[in-house]
Amino acid sequence: MTEMKAPDSARRSERSRRAIYEAALALVGEVGYPKTTVEGIAARAGVGKQTIYRWWPSKAAVLLEAFLDMADQAAEAAGPGGYEIPDTGDLEADLRTVLRATVDEMNTPVYDAPARALAAEGVVNAEVGAQFVERLLEPQLQLYVTRLRAAQEAGQVRSGIDLRIALELFTGPLAHRWLLRTLPLTHEYADQIVDCAVNGLAPRD
Amino acid sequence: MTEMKAPDSARRSERSRRAIYEAALALVGEVGYPKTTVEGIAARAGVGKQTIYRWWPSKAAVLLEAFLDMADQAAEAAGPGGYEIPDTGDLEADLRTVLRATVDEMNTPVYDAPARALAAEGVVNAEVGAQFVERLLEPQLQLYVTRLRAAQEAGQVRSGIDLRIALELFTGPLAHRWLLRTLPLTHEYADQIVDCAVNGLAPRD
Amino acid sequence: MTEMKAPDSARRSERSRRAIYEAALALVGEVGYPKTTVEGIAARAGVGKQTIYRWWPSKAAVLLEAFLDMADQAAEAAGPGGYEIPDTGDLEADLRTVLRATVDEMNTPVYDAPARALAAEGVVNAEVGAQFVERLLEPQLQLYVTRLRAAQEAGQVRSGIDLRIALELFTGPLAHRWLLRTLPLTHEYADQIVDCAVNGLAPRD
Amino acid sequence: MTEMKAPDSARRSERSRRAIYEAALALVGEVGYPKTTVEGIAARAGVGKQTIYRWWPSKAAVLLEAFLDMADQAAEAAGPGGYEIPDTGDLEADLRTVLRATVDEMNTPVYDAPARALAAEGVVNAEVGAQFVERLLEPQLQLYVTRLRAAQEAGQVRSGIDLRIALELFTGPLAHRWLLRTLPLTHEYADQIVDCAVNGLAPRD
DNA sequence: TTATAAGCGAGACGGTACGTCTCGTCTTGGT
DNA sequence: ACCAAGACGAGACGTACCGTCTCGCTTATAA
Q: What is the pLDDT of residues D46-61, one digit of tens each?
């Protein structure tokens, strides 16, 4: 049993952590994930390599935290409501709004590059994949569950439907196009997905 | 000007190519994609490294061809019809059959490991991604287009719907769960997806 | 201008110093000089690294002082006379006694390992070498000068001879064998060196 | 049992070997042995690190071979006789010639720096020490044995004397001063050593 | 008798070099 | 000409120590 003596996080250098986050995101954006190296991150952050290895187990873990940090800061800046799906009573319109926003995000390079890298790493590395899903994806999916539950209670969604499955009718196609780049991601595409999927969930006559 | 002198493919060693395919698939299955190296493939195939670099540009390209080769052989063994979606007239039943088969495939390790590796590489490397989509994914998606067109002509699918989008209602959610391992892939899940999606495509009253 | 503020030696922890000496000597004996590290000494002594760097400029300096301390304690234990070369009137016999004792010391691991390490460091690092010679070697060589002067005055050594050179006829060969391990160091060898060298110093007919 | 598969020395790059020798000797001369690193040698030689680790087990081994190579080239350039001790019949004069030459060599920086480094490493590392003695020192000592044997047969050296010990009367003091820098190495010093030592070896009346 | 400032243990930090691994290219015989 | 074999230049890996730098915590004067 190799008892790892954990470093003392009270003494951790906040300055270094921030510099590492920034360097990691910048490098992934500039040279791509595979060419981003731990050495490169350390050099760019003006940090010793050991300072990275002391706090993270892998390049992917660094990037995941950097990305979460970026998302947290964005959420904070977005105002008190944070991120949630609007509820105007019109399910189709609300989901259109959200999916269009998601499409925009996926077309934004500073978001796209690291998110894509993390997703890819998670596909192949179960450990990272679990973290990616748990810390990044799942919170977002819960927003759909919440909104769809409201719709279900309002009678806009069939009562027998599992909402975890329902939400995948929206996010699944979007993620598919995003990850594999089969066809371009546009607002129109988002609208069409919402149209079909909402129809599929609607109560039968 | 770097004049690339192409190797003479007539003189190519068939024995080596087969050995490389087998070694690549075996290693990806055994140690995972990131730990599979070109050196390792060469050593296992009893082949010089240059023989790999002469014919393929990257580890991912080797694996892609190896995987296509495996798929071709499976298709050949599957009989004269090859792969196509059945058309019994009942769209929902036909798609259930296909999605259940796909779920089974994704739960088969010898298929899962290399396919997952290729998808992940394609997510991050546009070059590989394009190849992956064009040579592996697109032919399968066309089968859906064909079946859905028949359904549309039979009045089971709304006429205004873009079939490229329609098909993603089925494959998107499936791919999502498969790649990110959010929840287990089961026949029941396939059925539920088909249920909702077919409903969404159906003509409105 | 780097104003070096010297530490206050009055407040120095005696306990720490002793622990550092012991740790340094023990580690050099156990794992050898190159694998002995400042971190290792600190850990073994139960001491912070800074406590070493505060009082010594280098690993070699620590070991030198540790060794001198060990020698001092040995000398103290040896009785009031301390170390000196006996003078029975028989130069050859007296030197035989001393060289045999030196041979024994060199064959004692607790003496050999650190002494060898210090000598090696001194060979390559002039600073350490000077300290090694001045504080460790020179006092011992002076003992030879004293004894040989007595012999010279008694007419047993040619009058023209420089005693600094004379003594090297004894210590030089011994050191040579010890440091480079060309051949084993034995009492017989000591005797033969003394025989030849005393003969070489003797007045000519 | 870790069976090391030895590299094929027939395919070795002569160009790289020479570049490594030159870089190693140059660096030791310029920055000293402790600051000479394997990485530095590789960089200066325009060579990958692995090319060094493939052929040598350590920095010291590289330097030893580089030094031997330098010595071989010098010997080759020195003419057909190579290195040997002259025999004019006058033992004292012949040894004076040789020891003066040795003193000169030890005062030559390009010789001194690497030789000193190797000797120091050999003092502390028995493996290296054995190589140093066997490949560098022993051949030179044998020259003394040869010359002293001739003198012994000519009746200029006592018949009972072990020549391996006799030679150390000359080389021991010299090495002592050289390695530990106790006092300067001069021709006069060499002469005095020869004077005393030859006298010590001479037959007794 | 307290306060105050030093030394202390601990250990995180920016670095350098280690020795290993794999990359993609180049070279040498063998078939 | 293609091949198996593998040496090569290059450079990232993750580890070990370097010497410096805070941290709180004794601990011993000097107010």
A: 999 999 999 999 999 9
Q: How many structural domains does chain A have?
A: 2
Report the distance separating Cα A187 and Cα D46, nearest Å. Answer: 55
CA distance B122 to B135: 12
* Structural domain boundaries enclosing A48: 12-60
Give the residue with minimal CA–C1' separation from F15: A50
Q: Extract the tokens encoding B30.
A: 């055994």
Do residue A185 and residue A103 come from a single domain?
yes
Is C10 a residue whose pLDDT tops 90? no
pLDDT of residue C9: 87
A4 touches strand E (CB under 7 A): no
Measure A111 CA to nearest chain B CA, in Å.
Answer: 14
- Contact between the CB of B181 and strand F at under 7 Å: no
Task: List the alpha helices (DSSP H) in chain B.
Answer: 14-31, 38-45, 49-55, 59-77, 91-106, 109-124, 126-131, 138-153, 163-180, 187-201
Nearest CB partner across the interface for D119, out of C123, C171, C201: C123
d(CA D166, CA B53): 65
Does the CB of A51 sit below 7 A from strand E? yes
Helix axes B91-106, B109-124, angle to 10 degrees: 90
Query: Sorting pLDDT into bands at 50, 70 and 90, what band is C84?
Result: confident
Q: Is residue B142 part of a domain?
A: yes
Write the pLDDT tens digit of every residue in A119-150: 999 999 888 999 999 999 999 999 999 999 99
Residue nearest to nucleotide E20 (CA to C1'): D50
In a domain, A50, yes or no: yes
The reply to whether A185 falls in a domain is: yes
- Give pLDDT, residue B1: 38
Chains A and B contact (Cβ–Cβ under 8 Å for 3 or more pairs): yes
Instruction: Quick: pLDDT tens for D96-122.
Output: 999 999 999 999 999 999 999 999 999
Is residue D29 located within the same domain as residue D92? no
